[in-house]
Amino acid sequence: MEKPSPYQIMAFARAARERSFSQAAAALGVTQSSVTQHVANLERHVGAQLFVRRRDGLELTRAGRELFAVADRWAAVNDLVNEHVANYAALKDGHLRITATAPRPALPLIARFNKRFPDILIDFKLLNWTQNAQAVRNREVDIAIITNPAIDDTVFTRKIEDIPYRAYMRVDHRLAKNEAVSLRDLQDETLVMTEDGSLTQRALLEAARRNGLVFRKTIKMTTFAVVKEAILHGLGVGLLLKDSVHPSDRLVALPVEEMRELFSNYFVIPSEKEKLRQIRQFIELV
User: Which CATH code for domain 95-162+264-283?
Assistant: First the structure.
């Protein structure tokens, strides 16, 4: 039986990463027709459709997802071999997909990396804790920055920092001059929260359970930027990890008596990608 060629596997892996035949072709330096032909030939080998072509891009089928889990490992190893052959030439092009559960520390690190390596394209997304962990499992990301991630032998991790939770409020809030606040102080407040699936929600529910408290007044927001804006507009008090949003002289961040424990931000990287040079350069910024 004829085996799939390395070109077919590479074309499929790149198209699955980019969710686009045209972007895969640009990344590989070949024509779009070459990529689509390689993928079509691979689909004949597999005996199943690997992509569903949609108006907003490619979507992996079940067979495609299963094959991508292996093909992306192969492509990463192939990239690593090519880097060794090139004797670690200067980083003049490339593409990093980065996700994080909060704007900081991700954005300051991306800014530093971009200043040093301006030709590397960065695709950055904010995802909640559950989505971020899923993106790593599905191999949809090169570098994830996750708080208290699940760690096993399929990922490389490096701790960035240990951080506590803080209650964020406007400087004119009735509690703003306190040195710290209690969860009981916040029971009559509206809590501005990130969406379902976040680590913050789990941490708050656990702290409330330990202390026999229930919070009934909450507003859920989709992103940290919107949470910050909601607090600034006086909609309530936000519970966020310290320094997870850009500082503002209109906000104060107070320790929470019942939530003194530290949480750890980590780089989480698919294990076979850890030695790729552009990824090593990024994590070495810390």
Answer: 3.40.190.10
* Topology at the third CATH level for domain 6-85: Arc Repressor Mutant, subunit A (1.10.10)
Quote the CATH superfamily of domain 165-261.
Periplasmic binding protein-like II (3.40.190.10)
Q: Is the distance from CB of 228 to CB of 248 less than 8 angstroms?
A: yes
| Strand 263-270 with 143-147, pairing | antiparallel
pLDDT of 236: 92
Bigger pLDDT: 93 vs 203: 203
Give CA angle at 222 (219, 228), nearest 5°.
Answer: 70
Burial class (CB in 10 A: 0-12, 13-18, 19+), 253: buried
- Could you check whether 6-85 and 165-261 share the same CATH topology? no
Looking at residue 88, its pLDDT comes to: 45
* Residue ranges per structural domain of the chain: 6-85, 95-162+264-283, 165-261
pLDDT digits (tens, 9 = 90+) for 26-46: 988 899 999 999 999 999 988
